[in-house]
Recover the amino acids of this structure.
């Protein structure tokens, strides 16, 4: 749950994530979560188009004045993946938010590998998040 680097092309972002993902096996599901009702800019429309044409499923997360909508949708999808795919399997999460630590820990206890790709951040990524990942990779 983080914004892509400013002025990044969707094709480049997906290529880098795909390269990392293929180290751990084939990709069966690739999702990006965003609020599509937010004011679209030329850059955001272009980014969404590039992500979608790269095989990424776009998951609309309208906030409607509520907090943590994206986080909750990602958490549910991670757990649904675990229900649908027996371990061992790998989940790759691009995030820097400590809210995912408990879900990651629960998945690891059930022998899922959780790869955490952390974005560049002016503040340190919480150790409670990094400590629950099987592997941590800098963005």
């Amino acid at each position: 749950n983080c914004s892509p680097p400013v002025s990044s092309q969707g094709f480049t972002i997906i290529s880098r994530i795909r390269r990392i993902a293929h180290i751990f096996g084939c990709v069966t599901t690739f999702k990006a979560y965003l609020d599509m009702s937010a004011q679209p800019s030329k850059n955001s429309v272009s980014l969404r188009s590039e992500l979608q044409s790269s095989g990424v499923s776009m998951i609309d997360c309208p906030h409607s004045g509520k907090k943590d909508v994206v986080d909750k949708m990602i958490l549910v999808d991670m757990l649904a993946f675990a229900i649908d795919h027996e371990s061992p399997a790998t989940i790759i999460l691009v995030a820097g938010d400590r809210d995912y630590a408990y879900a990651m820990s629960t998945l690891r206890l059930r022998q899922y590998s959780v790869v955490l790709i952390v974005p560049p951040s002016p503040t340190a990524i919480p150790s409670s998040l990094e400590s629950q990942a099987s592997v941590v990779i800098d963005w």
Q: What stands out?
A: The first strand starts at residue 31 and ends at 34. The two ends are 13 Å apart (CA to CA). The chain has five helices and five strands.
